[in-house]
Amino acid sequence: xxxxxxxxxxxxxxxxxxxxxxxxxxxxxxxxxxxxxxxxxxxxxxxxxxxxxxxxxxxxxxxxxxxxxxxxxxxxxxxxxxxxxxxxxxxxxxxxxxxxxxxxxxxxxxxxxxxxxxxxxxxxxxxxxxxxxxxxxxxxxxxxxxxxxxxxxxxxxxxxxxxxxxxxxxxxxxxxxxxxxxxxxxxxxxxxxxxxxxxxxxxxxxxxxx
Length: 210
Prior knowledge:
Blueprint: H1 2-16, H2 37-47, E1 51-56, H3 60-71, E2 75-77, E3 91-93, H4 101-106, E4 109-112, E5 116-118, E6 123-126, H5 135-139, E7 143-149, E8 153-154, H6 157-163, E9 171-173, E10 178-179, E11 187-188, E12 195-202
Parallel strand pairs: 1-12, 2-3, 2-4, 4-7, 5-8, 7-12
Antiparallel strand pairs: 5-6, 6-9, 10-11
């Protein structure tokens, strides 16, 4: 195997001998749609069958209360470091000391933030930082409500990777957990939450009432 590899490399070196060096750019320019990144991100997340709300930042607490109320969700897990103003007057469950799997399975859901979000793929990345908690918090409950701020949305995976620390426990979320491994039938909730709901907090002013 090694001798074959060396023969191939030798042939390549001989073929390019004397050629002028070529500078290869390692950067990647955004070549996707020219529309607003938030609109693209919201569209891609919806494509994954997630529920999406795009609201001004000031409306995040009211939106959290509204969507959880619509589900009848009262006991929700809140990771440490989640902005207190995002969470309304609910029966909050803290992960201190760490909750057992059965306890996480029994709550109505989890509310978290994220580290970064990718417009091109509709992917949300969690790295265990403030407001995100350990991996089990967003994988075991059947419902995950994630707040994504406008500043966290980047165009592509390339920009997302540049923002992340590879030494941290990264979880890449593209819609609710689903698999079609069993007889090609889509089954949701196998590897994580059955329902993903996303609030995108923007700097835009609220739309005028009709």
